[in-house]
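Hi there,

I know you've been waiting on this one. I reran it after we fixed the sequence typo, so this is the corrected version. Both the input and the resulting structure follow.
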Amino acid sequence: MEVKTFRANTMQQALDLVRRELGSSASVLHTRELNAGLLRRLVFGRQVEVSASSAVNVPSRLPPEYQLSAANRSYAEPVVPIHLEADYRAQYRDDFRHQVAGQLDELHAMVEKLCERATATPAYDLPESLFHVFTDLIEAEVDESIARALVDQIRTRHDAHELVDELLVKACVAKLLENEIKVTGPIKTQEDRCRVVALVGPTGVGKTTTIAKLAANYRLREKRRVGLVTVDTYRVAAVEQLRTYADIIDLPMEVVSTPREMREAVERMSHLELVLIDTAGRSPRDEVKIQELESMLAEAEADDVYLVLSSTAGARSLAATAERFAKAGTTALLLTKLDEPSSLGHLVSLVRTCHLPISYLTNGQTVPDDIEVADRSRLAYMLLGIETEEGVTAW
């Protein structure tokens, strides 16, 4: 038995090929549609395959309009099922629209977002001085959205002729940031009352060295009665380091490891004016250790809990750390190592979004120097990387 296979774009064309090759009495044995699926149809086009034989006579399973009877067909005027072709085309069109509808929605959203960003971005018609300030903020690692917001505020609040002087523009930007910075001032001590201040934070941010700086300044310069308590029994030589400072400055010092010992140590130092507590570094992701720290500070009844953060950390890390340590009852920020990063612009987002005020700033390891009370104006200039009137970077 000889079986031949014919392929065409439509069923009608395939049957016409069968009729021409095998005659109108040929029997169709098998049909199938090739390139199933929308993508293949779009790329390769639709194809139909028909297997037929002139030696076999079987009843036709095709609809009447596709049967090969000579009475119903003529070579000159083939009957084409136009309505069927239209149905297939409509189906392909609906399938295509359904599959790409989601992609079109995503593209539309992306275009809208890009248009909004382009509208919000400082345009080329900015005054030259304002544009230079904007680029300087970006180079200082200030977040682009914050830099854009600051520049837009300056542009809307001042006339064009007021924006000619670049130094004046920088001063205006610094003033805007200064208004958003919150500070606490120095630790306030009283002769008839013991003030308890604890320093908490991640490992390696400089808590012990900062404790020594504060103790030395209040003992040697302010002539206050100061005592030290350390809970940092985990880090190698941490106790010895603080004890060395205590011996040099001539301060009483207590080492505790439990909440009960903390309460008793603070009670023994209640006759002093200032007690500084050095805690062990804790990972912001370790909730158990944070809870232990919270219990320890609760027994100490600390008046202030300073969260010590290193300026070498990234903006996101600083924000996450501040959020996690809030459970320990933090009341203020203390920023360290301001002398190490090449720029401090990444701290702008922290001081703008964190609800905690800033207490002290440190910029080196020298005890009792390299520490100062946070000043809003000075800090704003430092974070923005703007030079002071003396012509040197503020610090």
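Quick highlight: The two ends are 99 Å apart (CA to CA).

Best,
R. S.
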